[in-house]
From TrEMBL:
One Pfam family in the UniProt entry: CAP
UniProt-listed InterPro entries: CAP_dom (IPR014044), CAP_sf (IPR035940), CRISP-related (IPR001283)
Leader sequence segment: none
Domain of life: Eukaryota
Record-annotated SCP domain positions: 32-199
Protein name: SCP domain-containing protein
Length: 216
């Protein structure tokens, strides 16, 4: 009983349902979108902390000391910069973790349902863990890129992986988040890129912990 109470005191707290006001001069990103990004991440991290997520083999967690993410206006600006052109250049801002997803419009279509695609990107990133195996010792390996938010230096070697979405989101030492989207017109088809940038306390390396087990 005391052990359960201890776990409850260290798991990440859920995000309040009320929206948080932001002061970021990006007219494309609304406060509603910012809250969507932030609440999704913190709710997912809370479920992991409480042991309510699964991979292909087992229940994950519970986990301790998972930080509740806060929104960073500076990281949002970086995300906006990185998304320009809707490409996949990971050589800039390597000290931050990055997740990006690109959606393609039909011929001649230049408008997108942005909120719908943001939700789709977040779902795709997080749900990759359901099709993967997390090591029993909860340590990072290359199949867990976006879920566990490794160093972007490693990302250059991971772009061919089929699991390069979703695993940036869970690492317990992430502290701040900033996301943005960019619509890239094209003569034949348009693209929408959703991109999130993560600040962490340490650079993550192979075999680093994704989260800590409260029983150890």
């Amino acid at each position: 009983m005391h052990q359960v109470s201890f776990i409850q005191t260290i798991i990440v707290k859920k995000v309040l349902s009320t929206e948080i006001p932001f002061s970021v001069p990006d007219r494309d990103n609304t406060d509603e979108m910012r809250n969507l990004y932030l609440k999704y991440h913190n709710d997912a991290r809370s479920r992991l902390a409480k042991g309510k997520e699964r991979d292909l083999n087992r229940r994950l967690g519970p986990a301790k000391n998972i930080y509740k993410l806060s929104w960073s206006c500076e990281l949002e600006k970086i995300a906006k910069e990185l998304a320009q052109g809707c490409g996949y250049d990971f050589t800039r801002h390597r000290s931050y973790g990055q997740n990006r997803e690109t959606f393609y419009g039909s011929y001649g279509v230049k408008t997108f349902n942005v909120k719908k695609h943001i939700k789709e990107a977040l779902d795709k990133w997080w749900k990759k863990v359901k099709n993967s195996y997390v090591r029993q010792d909860n340590k990072y390996d290359p199949s867990l890129f976006e879920f566990s938010n490794v160093s972007s230096k490693l990302a250059l070697n991971l772009l061919s992986s089929t699991l390069n979405d979703g695993f940036q989101m869970a690492h317990y030492k992430n502290t701040e988040l900033g996301c943005a989207h960019v619509i890239c017109p094209d003569p034949s088809f348009s693209k929408l890129q959703v991109l999130c940038v993560y600040k962490r306390l340490l650079v993550f390396i192979l075999n680093a912990l994704i989260y800590r087990n409260p029983f150890l």
